[in-house]
Design goal:
mainly alpha, 3 helices, two-stranded antiparallel ribbon, 2 strands
Length: 89
C-alpha cells in the first residue's frame, strides 16, 4: 500500500495537468517556449506516473484496467472483472 502522501501528490499533479492543458497547447502551437517554462513543473504531463487506483502501487500497473497486476490477479480469480478468467490448457 502506497503512502497517502504519495497518492495525494499524484492526484494533485493530475489536477494541475488538466488545469493547464489548454494553456500548454496554445503556447506550444505559438512556439512560445519561454511561456511554457514559466508554467509550474507539475503542469507537464510527463511528470505523471501511473498508479493502481486501489492501492497506489506504482509498479506492475495494467493500463487497460487501471490497477496493479497483484490486484488484477486477485479480482480475476474472484470473478470481479467481467470477461477475464484464468487460462488453462
Amino acid at each position: 500500500m502506497a503512502k497517502e502522501s504519495m497518492k495525494a501528490r499524484e492526484r494533485k499533479r493530475r489536477q494541475m495537468v488538466e488545469k493547464y492543458a489548454e494553456k500548454r497547447k496554445a503556447l506550444k502551437e505559438a512556439g512560445d517556449f519561454i511561456g511554457l517554462q514559466k508554467l509550474p513543473k507539475n503542469a507537464s504531463p510527463v511528470r505523471l506516473h501511473n498508479r493502481c487506483q486501489l492501492t497506489g502501487r506504482p509498479k506492475g500497473y495494467m493500463r487497460q484496467f487501471g490497477i496493479s497486476r497483484i490486484n488484477f490477479r486477485e479480482m480475476a480469480l474472484k470473478g470481479l472483472i467481467p470477461g477475464v478468467k484464468k487460462a488453462s490448457w
